[in-house]
Amino acid sequence: MARFEHTVTVAALDRGWFEEAAGHLVDLFDASREQGGALLLPDGRPVHGLRLLKGRHLRPGAQYGGTPDPEKDGASAVETAVLREWRPSRAVEVESLVAEEGMSLRVRVRLREPRTPGALDLSLDGHHPKGGSLYRFSGRGKADPHAWWAALDRPAAAPPAGRAPVVGKAVHRLAKARLTVTPRPAGDGSWQVRVVLGVRGRRLLRPVGAVALLLVRGPVARGFREAVESAAEEWNTALAELTPLHGDALRAEIADALTEPPELPERPEPSEPKAL
User: Fold this and answer.
1) Cα–Cα distance, 179 to 193 (Å, whole number)
2) Is the full-model pTM beyond 0.70?
3) What is the SS3 string spanning 149-190?
4) Which residue, 102, 87, 154, 143, is CA-closest to 119?
5) Could you read off the pLDDT of 15-60 as tens digits, one per residue?
6) Across the chain, how many H-helices and E-strands are there?
């Protein structure tokens, strides 16, 4: 088995703020209503980019989809989501289907105790309807916020938590992969996050996979480190932009984010052709 490991330092997220924000988000959707397919928040503003396609809003079986984007052509991904469970005090479960360029991906997400997020379970299955077994893969993942915070409550000098709060597994005909993410407190109040990826070939292909991984181990390790570093940079950037709001101000900020389209990067002005 090939094993890749990298540790990054990231800014810490305040648990109280995170749970308060999650509670406001769930409450806003729980108090929303449907009108002509549009999802209206309590103040009457429609949620941007999301519409009810079939069924009754916030009832099991309700199907949702995105708002067509005139900026994208017909080759863009088609995504729909079906609500399987909506009990804000206990669990929320959503199943989505994404089809793009012949590939079909089904994703199922279940979150326990949504108002103070508990365990999040994720499963995905992908395949190409016209392809064989090489075009099939599956994955399972679990993130436990309570275990995450418990790992960060340990003294900085203590060894890492024995059980990773975030675990993901992927299976393909040729190989299996397992990813774990474990945090620990750093001395300056930030977090040190250790990411470990293990990959191994399957069955009779295991020796072939071992040789292949040996040949590409350097580039794969480099790509893995770069991906982890990039994720850490994005996390730090996002946290730096967060305004430490609370109460009604935080609720209003979340409502604005749900109803306003995201800002798109400005397109560069076309340059004038140079005279010959």
Assistant:
1) 13
2) yes
3) HHHHCCCCCCCCCCCCCEEEEEEECCEEEEEEEEEEECCCCC
4) 143
5) 999 999 999 999 999 999 999 999 999 999 999 999 999 999 999 9
6) 4, 13
- Burial class from Cβ neighbours inside 10 Å (0-12, 13-18, 19+) for residue 146 reads middle
Residue 65 structure tokens? 């989809």
55: left (phi over 0), alpha (psi -120 to 50) or beta: left
Q: What is the pLDDT of residue 75?
A: 45
Distance between CA atoms of residues 122 and 14, nearest Å: 24
Diameter of the chain by CA atoms?
A: 70
Q: Decide: helix, strand or coil at residue 9.
A: strand
Q: Determine the length of the chain.
A: 276
Task: Say which amino acid occupies 171.
Answer: V
Tally Cβ neighbours within 10 Å of residue 29.
19
